[in-house]
Design goal:
By secondary structure, the chain is α+β, with helices and mostly antiparallel strands. Helix content is 38%, strand content 23%.
Length: 146
């Protein structure tokens, strides 16, 4: 099964577009994803990006709750209120909109980060800091860092 793996940093062009890494475009093509569901990550200052199946997974979780419960309402607020649909252009580029810039702090470069079933858009220095912190936490917990 194809997965989003690794990371890559690409420059945003003068029209506000960024090329999605070829490996990520390949996974999208294998999964026949035509429309991207993008939402503001719950933990990190990143935009999470996947196919409609990602949204459907969250909606199944919401539907399993009492629709009037605080949990269902909070999840809907995050998933529906903090999400949008986007499309790649014919050259495999994504428009870096205010939705992305405002939440991530991205300015002239975007780091694409594979997360198995989806990928994320990060401000490059924020990704490096989070990855360094995660490695340090693994070392302190006795986990392997390599």
């Amino acid at each position: 099964m194809s997965r989003f793996l690794s990371s890559a940093t690409n420059r945003i062009d003068s029209k506000g577009r960024v090329s999605v890494p070829a490996a990520f475009r390949s996974v999208l093509a294998q999964r026949n994803v035509q429309e991207l569901y993008c939402f503001q990550d719950f933990v990190f200052p990143a935009i999470s990006v996947g196919g409609p199946d990602l949204l459907e997974r969250f909606e199944r979780q919401i539907a399993a709750e009492d629709p009037f419960s605080p949990d269902a309402n909070e999840m809907s607020l995050l998933i529906h209120g903090g999400g949008i649909f986007m499309k790649l252009d014919a050259e495999g580029r994504l428009m870096v909109t205010d939705f992305i810039r405002d939440f991530t702090g991205v300015s002239d470069e975007v780091t694409f980060v594979g997360r198995a079933d989806h990928f994320q858009l990060w401000q490059p220095q924020a990704f490096q800091a989070a990855q360094t912190q995660a490695r340090g936490g693994r070392r302190l917990a006795g986990g392997r860092s390599e």
